[in-house]
Amino acid sequence: MRWTAPTVILTLALVSSWWVAAGSYADDCRIDPIEGALHCSASGGSTNRSDTTPPRERPPMRYIYEATDATGAPCYYWSPTPGGLDVWDPGNDPAVAAIVLTTPVCPVIVETPEDTAWRIFRSFALALPDPSLEPAAAGITGLPTYLATPGAPDITHVELLPDGRSMEVWAAARTLVVDWGDGTNGSFDAASALTYPSGAVTHAYATKTCNPTYRSEHPYGGNCHPTLEAYPITATFVWEGRYRIGGGWIYLGTLDRTATVLYDVDEVQGVLLR
Question: How far apart are the first and last CA of the chain?
Fold first, then answer.
């Protein structure tokens, strides 16, 4: 590609506009990494902000990402997150010029405090249950099986909003839901999922599980579950999210994190001795 004098002048002008745009976005806008959209304050990029945080403390908007708008048309947006086209790299100038000359900027979406709280809540590394069962080798019909799992610590995060206020987002796993795999399920206090004999998360199976050969050939094969070789036990932490901005906690909603284990169940047959 040959660069003519007008092209060079135009490119320099574009580079200048990129820095102005990036500086403006860095003051008023943020990128939602989940939606891939640019979210700005209600001021719409105004420099008259009540935020007293120096702009230089925020990550620079040095990357361009290509995306599509609500209609499916191509657009681009600025982001401080590495992975996009780095406008600080002079080698990317032709590609950057091609994007900004032929593609519109993605529509700006104003993010409400609740939107921000949900974005942060979804970004948390919410722990899954790590279930262990007793008896460990196999359950016994008619006797309780205990399910235990380590508790998940609460998660908190403080976010500086575009208007200068601080918002705290909190997540906690207080509820454990267990599907025992035999058509029954229950909801428990997650703190009660302790090992035998202290735990309260228990279940007694009525039917043992068997492999196909035992089920079809053994004299007691008729006592087996008709299809299962093991019960799929599903344990779910129900994470509850809340946020607050200088006042009381506001309920957001819940996110589930699930783990599944297979569990064999046997039976004990009494034998008459003479």
Answer: 100
